[in-house]
Amino acid sequence: MTFGEKLRLHRTKMKMSQSELALKAGLGINTIGNYESGKTYPKDRRTYGVLAEILGVDADYLHNENDDFISAAREKYGLRGKKDAEALLGDINGLFAGGDLADEDMDEFMRAVQESFWRAKEKNRKKYTRRDYAVKD
Is the dihedral of CA 103, 107, 112, 113 positive or negative? Predict the structure, then answer.
């Protein structure tokens, strides 16, 4: 679940409008709207703490996206896998949120990641599927 999705979920659970949350947090209403839509993220880590306190959740919970991916990496590869997954996601989030890449370069990066994923998935399908179950290409 993304930061924006978590923010909206807990704000609505508390029956609070975007403008009420913005006022309590000392932020603009457009800022809250942009957070919830995923257009922007807080630049200052303290903002996560302020929002978390208002919403009654942990700041790390709000800040950490892709918790399922990180948990799976920890289960499969241990603490080092967890740290590597967090570092990878942090680098990618930084690349998109505050990086200097043009939109077309970000699109190209995402296409390359997706192509790598599908190639690896196909390779593993061929590698781990029993021959008598394999679909003929």
Answer: positive
Taking 3-state DSSP, the helix, strand and coil percentages for the chain, each rounded to the nearest 5, stand at 75, 0, 25
For residue 20, give both structure tokens.
């009420």
pLDDT 10s digits, 76-121? 888 888 888 888 887 887 777 766 778 788 788 888 888 888 888 8
Give me the amino acid identity at 86.
E
For residue 127, what are its two tokens? 């590698």
Per the structure block, which two tokens stand in for 48? 């996560």
CB-based contact 34:40 (threshold 8 Å): yes
What is the rounded distance in angstroms from the CA atom of residue 47 to the CA atom of residue 55?
12
Average pLDDT, the chain: 85
Architecture of domain 3-63: Orthogonal Bundle (1.10)
Domain boundaries, the chain: 3-63, 66-100, 102-137
Q: How far apart are CA 59 and CA 83, in angstroms?
A: 19
| pTM for the model | 0.52
